[in-house]
Design goal:
The chain is α+β, with helices and mostly antiparallel strands and 145 residues long. The protein has two domains: 39 residues; 99 residues, Beta Barrel (Porin), CATH 2.40.160.90. It has one helix and eight strands; from the N terminus they run αββββββββ. A hairpin with a 2-residue loop joins strand 2 and strand 3.
Length: 145
């Protein structure tokens, strides 16, 4: 007489389900750490556009030719310069893991630039500064060819 084992099929199903979930987890981890990391956008280049600002000191201002040059980039970290009415400032920044958002700072500045990569050749940047020289402004910058 052959005795059927009713728990055997359920155990095999759970084992295969565990293998499937584990494989999916490993694939997701690989995608996040290997594939997606290789998709970090390259920001090196010269970017320019119109900058619109507002502050108590200067009121509403339009700066017609805002130029930012990102001179080097290693993975998510980058450096560059920008020129404005008072001279040239050096800055450094990072691209966030979403590969769309970034922030940069400049040693002599009291504010931050927060940005978003809109496409391969367009970025949006917004500068905010508090305290005595409180200012807020944004620019849409196009990569110059």
């Amino acid at each position: 007489m052959i005795k059927k084992q009713s728990g055997n099929a359920a155990s095999q199903f759970l084992l295969w389900l565990l293998v499937l979930v584990n494989t999916a987890g490993i694939a997701y981890y690989y995608y996040q750490t290997e594939i997606k990391a290789k998709q970090i956008p390259n920001l090196v280049g010269t970017w320019s556009g119109v900058n619109l600002t507002v502050s108590d000191e200067k009121g509403y201002k339009t700066w017609d030719d805002k130029t930012v040059t990102i001179t080097e980039q290693q993975d998510r970290r980058f450096r560059g310069t920008f020129t404005y009415a008072d001279g040239t400032k050096h800055f450094f920044g990072v691209i966030y893991p979403d590969n769309k958002s970034f922030t940069w700072v400049s040693t002599p500045s009291h504010g931050y630039v927060h940005g978003r990569i809109l496409n391969d050749n367009t970025i949006g940047t917004c500068y905010v500064e508090t305290w005595e020289h409180a200012t807020a402004g944004c620019a849409t910058l196009e990569r110059q060819k």
